[in-house]
Structures are given as C-alpha cells and as structure tokens.
Amino acid sequence: MRKRRVVQSAVLAVTGIALVAGVTTLASAAPSAQTAPVALSNQTTAPKPTIVLVNGAWSDSASWSRVVKPLQAAGYPVVAPPTALRSLSGDSAYLAAYLKTIQGPIVLVGQSYGGSVITSAATGNPNVKALVYVSAFAPDTGESAGALTARFPGSHISNDPNAPVPTALSPVPVPFPKPDGTPEVVLYAKAAQYRDLFLSDRLSVAAAAELAATQNPVASAALGENTAGEPAWKKIPSWYLVSDADHLIPPAAERFMATRAHSHIVEADTPHAAQVTNPGIVVNLIERAVAGTR
C-alpha cells in the first residue's frame, strides 16, 4: 500500500480540510477541550460500516464517549465492547468472537493497548475493512506492548526505557490469585501520574483525577505477552494517529509502527488519550478510514 502522510498541526480539534500545493492539511481551531468534532459527510448512499472502538490499558469503554456521539449523529452504528485487559490472547479472542456477530463492513479502532488487540482480532475477518490506530500499538508477530514502549526513549512510564517489562513500570502492582490458584498481578496507574501520562496535563486536575479513580487496571502479563500469528495490518489498510505529545508510548515508536504498517498517517499535538482531549481529530481520522475503504 502506498503510504500517505498527513501532517496535522491542530492541538485540540479539527474544523475543516484544506488542500494546499497538493498536501492535505487539517485546519485547526484554537485549543479547547470542548471544541466540537469535525462534521461528518452524509453524502454516500452505501451502507455505513459499524465502527468498533477498543479501549486500552488504564481506561474503559467510556473513554470513547466524545467520539461515539458525533459518529452516531452522522448515522454510523457504533459499539465499544469492553476490554478485559488480562491477556492479549484472551482479549483478542473475545474481540474476534464479538466481531463475528456484526453483519456488514467494520472499521476497527484501537487506542493504546487496544491497538495490539485489534491487530490480532481482525486477522482473517473479511468484514473488517480498515484498522484505525489512535496513539496505539501496532505490533508485529512476536512483539509485545511493553517491548515496543521500551524500544524507544521518551516514555514517562519508565525510568529506564531499556529495562525489561514489567520491572520498568511505575504503576502500582496489585497481586491476586486467579481462579486456578496461580498468582497474577494487575497494574494501576498512580493517581498523581495519571494526568501527565495519559493527558499530558491537558485536562483539569479534577477531570484527570476522576479518570484515574475509574481506570481499569491491566495485567502485567498482558503488556508482556507477544503477538501471535500474522498481524492484521499486513492485509487490511490502516490509518494511524501519531500523538506528538504522547507521554506513554514514545512518538518515535508510534511513527515506527505506523510507517512499518504502511498506514495513512496523521500527526497531531495530542496526548496519549487523544480520544478524550481531542475527539474531533479522532473522528476525522475514522471518517478518513471510512472514505478510504469505499
């Protein structure tokens, strides 16, 4: 697939598209977490694909709420099934089974660890027409989220970017016994670090504290588990938001993964949780993926 790079300078929202000297750029509004997302096109008569939104670690389905609303308003069927965050293989198997219940075309969107999940779950499903990665992992066979994070410097989640997972992680480990009695550890992001790690200090302290309080922890095993089988991005076209202000996944890692996957790339001054702070940019990227599959 021929890669098309789209450089995007908006901070918090997109209000239109301009063509200048053959280069597509996104016109931006003044920074505001409340800026409305870009208007979506309703001029096609083809059936709209179902948009499936997959959350990442230390998050939940509700993190997509500001993306769901404009997509639904534009007539898209939208679902955001929960991610258990206990194992990559288990999370991927659950999503793969869920996708089989959906009739018609699907645009599959993953954020953060959710990118690893969609990379595995979409393989072999002919209804998945596009993959959209939002500040997300797009691993190849044999790669883990933790290893990809540590491969490039810049993540605030580790004091040593070259340290092995999970010893490099700063979140709080909480041990518990699994049903078979074997031990497991889940990781909670520290409340004091949440605003920096996921939001790059772009939401208020109070709003960040609420998200930290309602976070879903991720099992350390999930972040260290390698991707099995052929990654879906080798067969399915993909779109990728590189978040230049990401404090969790180094932007260099995102560019590497997006380039390797031959994704259509948008770069923006967004934090890791771009779907929370910059829903317009994310909605616009999803709409581009929809248009690119027609």
UniProtKB/TrEMBL annotation:
Entry protein name: Pimeloyl-ACP methyl ester carboxylesterase
Q: What is the lineage of its organism?
A: Bacteria, Bacillati, Actinomycetota, Actinomycetes, Propionibacteriales
Q: Which residues form the AB hydrolase-1 domain?
A: 51-283
Q: Which InterPro entries match?
A: AB_hydrolase_1 (IPR000073), AB_hydrolase_fold (IPR029058), Sec-Metab_Biosynth_Hydrolase (IPR052897)
Keyword Signal found: yes
Signal as UniProt keyword: yes
Keywords assigned: Signal
The record lists the organism as Kribbella pratensis
What GO terms are given for molecular function?
catalytic activity
The record's listing under Gene3D superfamilies reads: alpha/beta hydrolase (3.40.50.1820)
* A Pfam match: Abhydrolase_6
Stretch forming the signal peptide: 1-29
